[in-house]
Amino acid sequence: MRIAVLRGGRSAERDVSLRSGAQVEEALRKRGHDVTGIDLDLNTWDVLRDGNFACVFNALHGRLGEDGTVQGMLELLALPYTGSGVLASALCMDKARANAVMAGAGLHVPEFEELELKQGMSADTVERLVSHFGLPLVIKPVREGSTIGLTIARDADQVASGLVLAARYDRRVLVQRFAAGTEITVGVLATPDLQVLPTLEIVSDNPVYDYDAKYTAGKSHHIIPARIPEAARAAASEAAGRAFTVLGCSGMGRVDIIVDAGGTPWLLELNTVPGLTALSLLPDAARAAGIGFDDLCQRLVDHAIGRHQHHVGPPAE
Ligand SMILES: Nc1ncnc2c1ncn2[C@@H]1O[C@H](COP(=O)(O)OP(=O)(O)O)[C@@H](O)[C@H]1O
Ligand SMILES: [Mg+2]
Asked: Does position 100 have pLDDT exceeding 70, yes or no?
C-alpha cells in the first residue's frame, strides 16, 4: 500500500513530530508498505493530490496538524487519514472548550478560567486569581502542547510571569486549580471498537513533567499499571473512555490525568495525536496490552481506510 506519513510541520512540537514520524515510517515499511515521509509545507496539497496514496498517517503534533486544519485538508482531498476527524481534533486542541465539554459530561476537570491577555494584565488580576484558585495554580496556553508555555506558579510573582509566558504562545490563557496526586496517562484506541489501554504512571525526575522530562531518555519513567488502588485505576480508565467518546474522538487518543489521594481522576487533556516516538507513552501502554508498535500503526491505517469506505457523503442532487 502507498502510505504518506505527515510529520514535522510548523508547530512548537515540530521536532517531536519528526521523531514520531520516523518511528511510524519504519514500522509501516517493516509491514511491507511503500511509505513516503512528508514534512508538511505549502506544497503538501499538491504532493498528496498527485501521490496516489491509499492512506495518510498523520504524525503531526500541535497546531496546524493535530488541530483539525490538516484533517480538513485531507477531507477535501478525499484521502483516508488516521486519528480523529476535524471537529474532535479542533475541540481537543482547545483546552478551554474541551474542558467545558468534559465537565459538562460530569467528568472531573480541575476548576479553570480562560483569560484573554490583550493589553497585559493588572496586579488586580493576579491578586484575584491567587485568592480564587489558591497556590500553587497552573497557567497554560489554551492551544499548545508538550508543557510548552506552562507554569506551576507558587507565588504572585510567578503568576504574573506565568501569564506573560503563556500569552507568548496564545493570547487565550487558561488558569487552573492545581491538582495534587499521581500523574497518569491513559491511552484509548477505537479502531473502531473502544479499547482503553492499561493505566500508565509517569514518574519524572524534573519537578514538572515538562518538555525536557518528556523527550530526554532516562528523565522520566513509565510504570504500568499505575501504582494506585484498583478502584482508582478503574475510575480513571472509565473516565478516559468517556472523555474520548464525549469529545467525539476516533482511532486513538491519550488522556492525561491526575489521580488524587481519594482516587478521583482529574482530567487535564486529551491528545488526539499522542507522541509516537521511542520514548512515548501510548506505544508503551499498547505494548503492555499486547499490541506492538507495528501492529498499532497497521490498525490505525486499516481503521482509516475502513472509515473512509463507510463515509456517507452528502446526498447526490
Ligand atoms: N491542573 C493541573 N494540576 C496539576 N498539574 C498540572 C495541571 N495542569 C497541568 N499540569 C502538569 O503539566 C503537564 C502538562 O499539562 P497538560 O494540561 O497535559 O498540557 P500539555 O501536555 O498539552 O502541555 C501535566 O502533565 C502535569 O504534569
Ligand atoms: Mg499533556
From this structure: yes
Give the pLDDT confidence score for residue 210 in this predicted structure: 82
Of 144, 175, 268, best ligand 1 pocket probe by most atoms within 8 Å of the beta carbon: 268
Contacts of 116 (CB under 8 A, 6+ apart): 171, 172, 173
Say yes or no: domain 112-177 is CATH 3.30.70.2750. no
pLDDT at residue 314, as a whole number: 59
pTM over 0.90: yes
At 222, which helix (H) or strand (E)?
Answer: strand 220-223
> Is the beta carbon of 264 within 6 A of some atom in ligand 1?
no
Helices (H), 31-113: 44-50, 69-76, 86-93, 95-104
Q: Is 176 in the pocket of ligand 1 (CB under 6 A)?
A: yes
**If one looks up domain 91-108+180-303 in CATH, what number appears?**
3.30.470.20
Q: 2-82 adopts what CATH topology?
A: Rossmann fold (3.40.50)
115 touches 173 (CB < 8 A): yes
